[in-house]
Amino acid sequence: MIMFELDQRIAEQLSTISLNSSVQVRCGNSNAFMVTASTMLPLMQMFEMGGVYITASRGAVEIIQAFESIGVDVSNIQFIDLVSSGILGGTDVEYSNIHFVDSPIMLESVLLRTLYILRTTSSARNFVFIDSVNALAIYNEDRMLAEYLHTFINTFRQREVLSIILNVPDQTPPLVLSNLDLYCTDLVDRGQVVIH
Amino acid sequence: MQAASTYSRDRCVTGIHGLDEILRGGIPYGSTVLASGTCGSGKTTLAMEFLVRGALAGEACAHFTATEPSVKLLENIRQYAFFDMNMVDTGLINVFDMDVLYSWLGLDKSTFDLDDVHALIKSITDIVNTIGVTRLVIDSVTTLCYKIKSEQLIRDFLFTLGKKLATLGCTTILISEITSATENAHWSSFGVEEAIADGIVVMGDVERMGHLLRFLQVVKMRGTSHSRAKHAIELTPLGVMLTPMLKWGSQNETAHWGA
User: Fold this and answer.
1) Are A138 and A57 in contact (CB under 8 A)?
2) What is the pLDDT of residue A192?
3) Where are the alpha helices (DSSP H) in chain B?
4) How distant is the Cα of B235 from the closest Cα of chain A, in angstroms?
5) Alpha-carbon distances, residue A43 vs A24, A39, A76, A87, A133 (angstroms)
6) Where are the alpha helices (H) located in B132-180, listed in sequence order?
7) ipTM, two decimals
8) SS3 of residue B254 by DSSP
9) How do the pLDDT tens digits run along chain B, 259 residues long?
């Protein structure tokens, strides 16, 4: 198991928010997984939440294995993988908690699949985690992505499902970023990474 | 000043996630609704869920299938968690093969005349009346109407059938197969179905950068206000789910022509 230092201030910040919050989490290229893990762990372990992890950045298997490598069991989390269907044989996986959507451009399908999973989950308190806006921006036009995030955030806020939106600010279109600033209730800013 | 009272028709609550919201509460009771769509757009699943939700509420339902044998239809629908074969076994959902019905009526011919059409209407309404069916699906009215050569006779058939079913308090979905669900397309194969029907629900695909997205749009529904926006749909094990389509998505979309 890899030793891993979490950012405890993220857990402290998350302890102050409510279920109908929407949190913009900014990270840099080099600290993305540390920020992701520092956000996910308190949700799963401290607050005992279930949830849906939507990945457009890497295949879900890779993310699950990254969590496993630091000793974190994510078998209670459902993953929606937008990457692997585009890779030949990418959907042939052994994890039953991975759901595949054909492409990151099928944004409505992602929303509906998330809602479907939340209807089937036994957890009373849930989160949805988008990893990441900058990865979605590779495939989707700025205005459509901004519209989608607006819909997404409001859909889950209305259902009292915590939404966590991960992005690398300097790789996210300005229009989308300004919309996130406007619609998210909270900001975890780890986007400025100081490299010693 | 006293607020003006507004009349609202009783609704057949479809129970389909999102559809009742689009229809502001459901389909007005006794309506005949044309569910028009291209192949693979989810018409049969939507219609079957409509029956299942009715059966779950204790309503008697009937499905007349002309496009595939009932055995095959039930096998295909069993993959959905919302469907329970007990509903068929206990008589809440009654599935009829049109081919069998034609044989009973002695209609083993390629085209139907006026007498044949009236015999068919009587047969369907007798079944509805006898079982007390309140939700009915005919899948598809297109296949059935291929046997009726005159446009006037098709009009007469659909109008009379719709009127009799409404009198019996039966809300009906007529499935219509179309080859395109674009703006310029007809919502039915023969052109007359869409004028007779109380409601039209169009289902199809839009292609967005090489991927097909299913959509549903309520074009017309007499007796209720409703959304006319395009909604994306997913066929999940729990049933059909809908969400409004992204407005900016249409910039990257092209209409998909079905088979």
Assistant:
1) no
2) 67
3) 19-22, 43-56, 70-77, 86-89, 98-104, 114-131, 141-145, 151-167, 193-196
4) 10
5) 15, 7, 12, 31, 20
6) 141-145, 151-167
7) 0.88
8) strand
9) 555 566 777 999 999 989 999 999 999 999 999 999 999 999 999 999 999 999 999 999 999 999 999 999 999 999 999 999 999 999 999 999 999 999 999 998 889 999 999 999 999 999 999 999 999 999 999 999 999 989 899 999 999 999 999 999 999 999 999 887 655 567 777 778 888 899 999 999 999 988 999 999 999 999 999 999 999 999 999 999 999 999 888 777 776 654 3
The top-level CATH class assigned to A19-190 is: alpha beta
* DSSP conformation class of B246: P
Q: What is the pTM of this model?
A: 0.90
Token pair 């007498």: residue = B115
We find that the CATH architecture of domain B11-255 is 3-Layer(aba) Sandwich (3.40)
Do the Cβ atoms of A21 and A29 come closer than 8 Å? no
Residue ranges per structural domain of chain B = 11-255
Closest residue to B213, CB basis, from A106, A120, A141: A106
Q: What pLDDT is attached to residue B259? A: 39
Residue contact B209–A111, C-beta within 8 A: no
What is the β-pairing status of strands A77-81 and A98-100?
Answer: parallel
Torsion of CA A105, A109, A111, A117, to 10 degrees: -130
- Give residue for tokens 């279930």: A50
Cross-strand bridge partners of residue A23: A164, A186
Please give the pLDDT value at position B191.
Answer: 78
Is B231:B244 a contact under the CB 8 Å cutoff? yes
Q: How many CB atoms lie within 10 A of CB A82?
A: 28
State yes or no: cis peptide before A75, omega within 30 of 0: no
Q: φ, ψ for residue B175 (rounded to 5)?
A: -85, 130
Interface residue of B248, B252, B253, B254 to substitute, partner A, most A CBs within 10 Å: B248
Q: Using CB atoms, which residue from A112, A148, A155 is nearest to B246?
A: A148
What pLDDT, in 10s, does the model give residues A108-136?
999 999 999 999 998 999 999 999 999 99
Of A3, A18, A2, A11, residue with least CA distance to A44: A11
